[in-house]
Amino acid sequence: MPKTRSKTNAIDLLKEDHAKVKKAFKEFEDMDRSDTETCRQLIQTVCEDLKVHTTLEEEIFYPAVRAAIEDEDIMNEAAVEHETAKMLIEQLENAAPDDPNYFATFTVLGEYVMHHVKEEEGEMFPEAKKAQELDLDALGEQMKTRKEELVGQAERT
Questions:
Q1: d(CA 113, CA 19)
Q2: Tens of pLDDT, residues 19-59
């Protein structure tokens, strides 16, 4: 389907990522845990997607939004939520599917991510849209380029 806009809005890009991981966490809820390889592959994919997403937010989106809005609390909470998610991702990367906490850790990661998404989409994104000096299309282009770099790096490792 052709896109009607040549530019990519930063918030639209982030919402696409949110929808993708929401779907994956829902898929995980319905998976047969005895199929450890399929579960492991899904968990690995979600963790890689989240690492790319958090990098885009931390390097490009958050600094621009922090400078444009007057809500330090929401920006600081988002940073703490990212740190927690990274710790859980690291635990998953260093564990095996037969670890008794492996699936529980992924479930908790999903809960954290869903909370984070709700706050971003319900509070941060509306504030960012109102900020006159924030060029969401230019940010989107930067994020799209950086995402291609990050995904390329992840595929090479």
A1: 11
A2: 999 999 999 999 999 999 999 999 999 999 999 999 999 99
* CA atoms within 13 A of residue 81's CA, in its CB half-sphere: 24
Q: Determine contact, residues 68/79, Cβ cutoff 8 Å.
A: no
DSSP alpha helix (H) spans, the chain? 10-29, 36-56, 62-68, 72-93, 102-119, 125-130, 136-156
| Contact criterion met (CB below 8 Å) for 21 and 49 | yes
| Contacts with 18 (C-beta within 8 Å, 6 or more apart), sequence order | 117, 120, 121
Give mean pLDDT, residues 52-67: 97
Q: What does the pLDDT read at residue 128?
A: 97
> In the block, which residue shows the tokens 């060029």?
135
* 92 Cβ contact list (under 8 Å, min separation 6): 43, 47, 102, 105, 106, 109
**Distance between CA 136 and CA 116 in Å, rounded?**
20
- Side chain identity, residue 17: D
Measured distance CA(40)–CA(81) in Å, rounded: 23
